[in-house]
Amino acid sequence: MNAHSKTIEPSRRDLVVGASLVGGALLVGCSPADLLAAGAKTEVGAFGPFIKIAADGAVTVISKHIEFGQGNHAGLAAIVAEELDADWTRVVVEQAPANAKLYANLGMGAQGTGGSTAIANSWDQLRKAGAGARGMFVQAAASKWKVPAAEITVRDGVLSHKSGKSAGFGDLLAEAAKVAPPEAVTLKDPRTFTLIGTDRVRRKDSRAKSTGAARFTMDVQEPDLLVAMVAHAPKFGAKVKSFDATAAKAVPGVVEVYEIPTGVAVVANDTWSASKGRDALKVVWDESKVETRSSDQIMAEFQAAGAGKGPKDLKWVPFDSKGDASKAPDGEVFEATYDFPFLAHATMEPMNAVARVKGNSVSMSFGSQAPTIDQLNAAKIVGTLPGAVKIETLFAGGSFGRRANFQSDYAAECVHIAKKVGGGRPVKLVWTREDDMRAGYFRPIVHHNVRITLDKDGYPAVWRQRIVTQTLMKGSPVPPSGGLDTSAVEGSLGSPYLKATPVVDAQLALPDVGVPVLWWRSVGATHTAYVMEHTIDQLARKAGKDPIEYRRTLYTRAGAKRHLAVMDLAIAKAGPAPAGLARGIAVHESFGSVVAQIADVDLSGAEPRVGRVVTAIDCGTAIAPNQIAAQMEGGTCYGLSAALYGEVTLKDGAVQQTNFDGYRVLRMNESPTVETYILPSGAAPTGVGEPGTPVIAPAVANAILGAGKPATYRLPFVRSV
Fold first, then answer.
1. Does the pLDDT of residue 200 top 70, yes or no?
2. Is the pLDDT reported for residue 39 higher than 80?
3. Angle, to 10 degrees, between the axis of helix 525-542 and the axis of helix 696-706?
4. Nearest C-alpha neighbor of 468 from the set 527, 536, 402, 530
5. Does position 483 have pLDDT exceeding 80, yes or no?
6. How many alpha carbons fall within 13 Å on the CB side of residue 542?
7. Regarding the domain delimited by 217-288+351-430, which CATH topology (the fold level of the hierarchy) does it fall under?
8. How confident is the model at residue 5 (pLDDT cuts 50, 70, 90)?
9. What is the pLDDT of residue 478?
C-alpha cells in the first residue's frame, strides 16, 4: 500500500448496517451512501479518491463511470487534467472500484452511469479534485523553494518560479503528499482553459481497443473457470415446473445443472459444452401467470385507453395542466394518434458476467453500469454487506440502458450460479444474442392521443394529450414522487410548445403489462420528441405557415432562447436544400441539451434513405468537441435505425425476433453523413450521450410530410411484419 494512502475498512457500525439491509430494516440517520457502501474496503490516496500520481509524475484519473463506447473517460480525465495542469500525454484513466460513498453519481445518490450524466455530475467534483491536487503541489514547491505560492506557475505537470527553479510532479510527490488538501480551491476562469474545448481531448482507450488489449468480460480467463448458460422461459412470467437434466449432463464438458429463480443453468468447462448442454435440457414451465397477449392486442388496449375507453380503474396522472380545458374556445381542431413498438437495446456485446462466491464473500468482474444496485442485489443473494461485494468494472460493448436495471438480471443470475458452485470458483455467465432478444428488457410500447384546438392564427390554444405506456419504475426502491413517472413523459413535460399554449391538459396512464421494460437510449424522448415535432410540422402546414417560422413564433412566446439558437445554427450550416431531396427539421431538448437536426431524405426508392444530417447542439461547455460529434453521429444512427426498422413483436406473449435477421438494424451503407456544430457556451456541461437519438425520427417524418406525402403516425417507417 502507498505510504500516503489509507484503507477504509468495515467498521462495527457497517456490520450493523449490513445486517439491517439484508434483513430489510430501515435505519434512521444513515445516508444512502453510508448504507450502500457498508462493508466497502477501498484505498484512498493522498490526493483523494479521483487522482493518483506516480513517482515519475504520470497522472491516473479514477473514473467512477463505466466506459461502454460513449467515450466519457477522455472527458472526465480532461476535467482533472485542466485544473491540475497535468501533461495530457501522460494522463491515463482507471476504473473506480464499487463504492457508493466515494464514487456515487451525484444526481443518483448511488454509483451508476446513465441519463447522460457522467460529465455533468462530475464537472464541479473533478474540477475541485484537480485544483486541490494542484494546490498541494504548489504549496509543497513554495515551502521547498521558500517563495510565495502565488509566484509559482504550473504547466504540463511542471512547476516553475521566475527565479528559474522548476520541478515535475514526480520530483515533488513526497512533499505534496504531506500537504493537507485545501479546504477551498480556486477554479480556473474558463477563458484560460488550454485543454478543455480543444481537439486534443481524444479517447484514451482507442489503442487498447484496437489492439485487443482492452479487457471485456469475455476476455476474463482464470484457473478452473466454469462457463454457464441459462435456459429461460419462452414467455414472460413463466417459472420452472420441472426439468430433466439427464441428456444435458451426458454432454461432454458439462459439469452440473442447477435450477435458479430465472430458469435452469447449465455449467460446463467451456461455452460450447454449456450451449450444447442447454440444448439437451428438457424443461417443463409453469405458465399459469404468463403474459399471453400479442403486441397488437396490447397496442389496441392502449389505443382504447387513450381514447377514454380503457378500464374504469385505470389511473390517469396529470403531468402538465393550466387553464380550464372544459372551456375550450371555438376553433379548428387537430387530432392525431401515434403508436410506438417495443424496441430491443441490441447492444453489440450481449450480457455476460463473472462471479466468485465463497461463503458470503462475493467478487465480480463485468461491465457493471450500476455497481451499487448490482452490489445490493448480490448481497441479498448471499447474505452479506452491499459494499463487501467487490466489483471489477470492465469495458462493455454498448448498453443504451440495458445493463442497469433494478433486478440486476444477468448479474444476479451469475451470482446465483456461482453460489451453487461455491468454493470461490469463478463462473462466467454467457448470454447469446437470442437470450437477450427474447429474455431481456425492452423499450415499452407507447401510445399518444393528441387533440389541439387552434386559435385564429393557427397556433395552439388548447393542447390535450394522453400518453399510455408501461412504467419503467416497476421494482424501483424509490417510487416516483406524486405517482408521476417522469421518464415516461419527459420531452412533452416542459416542452416549449406547451409553455406557449394557453390551456394544457396532459395526462399519463400506466397499465400493467407482463413484459419487462427498461429505459432505452433517450428514454421518454424516444417517443415524445417524435410526437411533439411531427405534430408541430403538421400544425404549421395546416396554418399555411413555414414550419421553421411557426417554431420561431412558439419559441419566442415560450422564451425558449436555446431552441431558437440551435435551430438558427442548424439552418445556417445546412444551406439550401439539394434538388430532388426532401428536407425536414426537428428540435428537441433532453438531458439538459438542446439539439436541432435538419435531414435530407431521398424518397425515390422503396424506403427512405437519409443522406445528410446537419446537427446543432447546445450542451453547455464542450469539453471534448470531437467526442461530442462522435456521440451525435452514433446517437443519430441509433435513432434512425429504430425509426426505420426497429420493432419487437409478441405473438401470444412470446417474442418473435431472435437476432438481427428479424430485428433489422441500420447498416454502414445506409448510414447518413452527420455534421455536428456546437453552440458556444460558458454554462456547465449537459448531456450528450442520448440527446442525438430522438431528433432524427421526426426530422425524417417531417421531410416525408414536406414532400407532400401523408404524416407518419406509427413507427417504424419500414415494417417487417
1. yes
2. no
3. 20
4. 527
5. no
6. 22
7. Aldehyde Oxidoreductase; domain 4 (3.30.365)
8. low
9. 72
The whole-model pTM stands at 0.94
Q: Which CATH number fits domain 6-208: 3.30.365.10, 3.30.300.30, 3.20.20.190, 3.30.2140.20?
A: 3.30.365.10
- Report the distance separating Cα 592 and Cα 619, nearest Å: 7
User: Both ends of the chain: CA-CA distance in Å?
Assistant: 60
Q: Where are the domains of the chain?
A: 6-208, 217-288+351-430, 297-341+442-706
* pLDDT tens sequence across 310-367: 999 999 999 999 999 888 788 999 999 999 999 999 999 999 999 999 999 999 999 9
pLDDT for position 477: 77
CB 619 within 8 A of CB 691: yes
Nine cell digits for residue 581: 431531396
C-alpha cell recorded at residue 228: 454457464
User: Hey, do 6-208 and 217-288+351-430 end up sharing a CATH topology, with the first three levels equal?
Assistant: yes
pLDDT tens digit sequence for 223-278: 999 999 999 999 999 999 999 999 999 999 999 999 999 999 999 999 999 999 99
What is the sign, positive or negative, of the torsion defined by CA atoms of 68, 71, 73, 79? negative
Closest CA to 286 of 311, 259, 308: 259
Among candidate residues 454, 613, 617, the one with its CA nearest the CA of residue 545: 454
Residue with cell 412470446: 654
What are the CB-based long-range contacts (under 8 Å, 24+) for 573-581? 573/614, 573/616, 573/675, 573/677, 574/598, 574/614, 580/604, 581/611
DSSP 133: H
- Residue 570: count other Cβ atoms within 10 Å of its Cβ: 26
CATH number for the domain running over 297-341+442-706? 3.30.365.10
- pLDDT at residue 530 in the model: 98
- Beta strands at 460-469 and 503-509: parallel, antiparallel or unpaired: parallel
> What is the bridge-based pairing of β-strands 390-393 and 361-366?
parallel
Which strand (E) or helix (H) includes residue 446? strand 446-454
Residue 556 has pLDDT above 80, yes or no: yes
How far apart, in whole angstroms, are the C-alpha atoms of residue 614 and residue 597?
A: 6
The Cα 629–Cα 624 span in angstroms is 9
- Asked whether the beta carbons of 430 and 228 are under 8 A apart, the reply is yes
Count each helix (H run) and each strand (E run) in the chain, helices first: 19, 30
